[in-house]
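If you are new to this repository, start here. Below is one unmodified record pulled from the training split, so you can see the exact layout before writing a loader.
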Amino acid sequence: MKRFYVTTPIYYVNDEPHLGHAYTTVLADVLARYHRLFGDETLFLTGTDEHGQKVQQAADKRNVSPQQHCDELSPRFAEVWRRLEISNDFYIRTTMPEHQKVVCAILMDLWERDEIYAKEYEGWYDVGEERFCTEKELVDGKSPAGNEVIKLREKNYFFKMSKYQQRLIDHINANPDFIVPKKRANEILGFLKQPLGDLCISRPKTRMSWGITLPFDEEYVTYVWFDALLNYFSSLSFGYDDDKSGDFWPADLHLIGKDILTTHAVYWPTMLMAANMALPKTILAHGWWLFGEEKMSKSKGNVVKPLDTMDLYGRDVLRYFLMREMTPGQDSSFSQDLIVERNNGELANDLGNGLNRVTKLIEKHFEGKLPEGGDYGDPERELRKLAEEVAGRVREEIRDYHPNGAITEVRRLSGAVNRYLEGKAPWRAIKQEGGREAAGSTLFHAAEALRWVGVMLHPVMPEKCAGLLQRLGQPEPTDFDSLLTWPLLKGGDPVESGDPLFPRYDLESE
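And here is the target side for that same chain:
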């Protein structure tokens, strides 16, 4: 049995869940659901990052402890994921004592092997990003992120990241799937052409006390990124029924936004190299959601809250739109117009219309019982051949982490069902003398093709596709192998019609 371990970033607890968070998490969920259908033993991890100066400052402002602040804010993410039907196996919080124990064990191991050292350091500190910047990195007196910086001089602890620069370059060049898409790998290789400094991994408690105490110096806490990145490994040893760290490490896929590429593609692999641990197989840095040509941001006031959109159009329509619209690795545009266009054109007019035609005709003319399949002609053989081809392509697209490609493939089949129905016109055949059997056969094969569509799109739209399959008398799918049989449906199976599975929306009335 194959294993598949996928992670999202752990989201900073001071943030509010927005469309970018939702995209990454739905993407991970869809991939995990597909791999479960493929029969892979699958783990899916998400959670929240809860240490650092911004958390401490926010807690102080509210006059509560940092822990209380995190306990109140972390559930916001968990609730959004619950409502989006996210199927994560574990939800990690970096304030969990089990996680902190793993972090301390790795820190102590690195310290004892001289991978960490102490020195006096003076530099420009970006409070917002919680990191030091070199003089060369400053842009017009500000950090690369555009934040104000302050001059600090203090003793700190440093990880010998520079020691692993060439080894990381060699790994990236030897493993083209390590960082995808390729342009992101090229960005990191470009970054690594300059000398790589060592990484400051501590903060003095006199300046910032909210974090994991260094096991070798109680006057310091761990740099938030060194703590946070280790969640991908630490969770395996305490987040499940048994210890899966040996079985599932290294991770198959880290899903991240391109804005945190350097931490994941430079800091993280060098940390793992120093700890003598295997590197993740793939780091996929996806793009940004844009309003026109602008990235969503709080400062521009154009941040989309996923639950607001879900309340307008439904959970599965939002999930479908997110997966359909963005090619992983590229930027994509968001608008209400696009959601309505995808829903009305692809879901309501195409998939929903085909299902509605089939179930209503069976209910009206065959007492709600699926008619017999009858003989196969060229149209039926072509429909079956296309379904089998699409199923194979869906597997390939998901293995390549392209659910948008999988959706495109399934749309070929759903469109073919409608063309098949138009060509055979069972609503006319049923009215002709001796046409009942031919009409029944057409409806049978159309229903079977729709079953395949329901199974193949279930990871994207679990609620809607469960409803589609229920109308065809079928349970929710538990494996992809049900698609190895055509037909699986049998004459006499109960079929039910109902309200449109995908209601149409009028944008002007929203």
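Two things worth knowing about this chain: The chain has a mean pLDDT of 93. The first strand starts at residue 3 and ends at 12.
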